[in-house]
Amino acid sequence: MASSNMTSGKRLASAVLATVLSVAVVAGVGVLLHKLSADPNGTLIATKEADTITIEGKVYPKASITMGVYADKEQAHEDGFDGMKNDWVQYGPSNHLILPANTYVTMTIHGYDGGEELNNPFFGKVVGTVGGTVNIDGEDISSLPYNKIQHTWTLHGIPTSTQDPLYVSVPLLRVEEDEETGWVPTKDPNTNFKGHTITFSFLTKGAGEYVWNCEFPCGDDTYAKFGAAMSGYGYMSGKVTVTA
Fold first, then answer.
1. What is the pTM of this model?
2. What kind and span of H or E run contains 63?
3. CATH number of 231's domain
4. CA distance readout (Å), 105 to 53, 57, 64, 159, 237
5. Tens of pLDDT along 8-18?
């Protein structure tokens, strides 16, 4: 009888241990997945403004948000952003933007990188902004030549019936380079004459989850220059959460 009780006790202990281990494994996997999906640099939240704007008879609250795009970590550091782990081209200070719903959002991007040529000239056009233009160093434009672009900021979502569609795509003017002297100074005092200030506005709709990415082939030589920074999360792509 004692042997039977001991066997039953061992079975119970084994069952409890197996359950504990299973819970630990599931919890560990959950923590790992959460860590992998977490924002590497936190979130960047748009600043709500006090005034409003009326467009086609409808009044919208206003908000603004600012970020930069850099050729490498050194440029990012000069702009006050520590930069991502790898020394690749990158946006910052965060790749996860938080925007208010049904709002006139003005976005400013300080661009410090050079460029080559777009694979698709469509992304040289401004799409989805208020007025169909972007302001670069004080000048409104509706497109850029395919060989004058450093990157794009392209916002979109997966077609679904559960949230409003939202598409914005803006080309960013490249910083010219000289083979002997390096970067050619720009005319933009906001970047200390090292880059361009790109400003545009668009209207958010209802709450939803969207993504943004660069459509310029700015990765390494793998995958038609869509490897490295282009395929590494947090460098040239990110998320946009529109909150109610």
1. 0.80
2. strand 58-70
3. 2.60.40.420
4. 11, 17, 5, 22, 19
5. 554 444 443 33
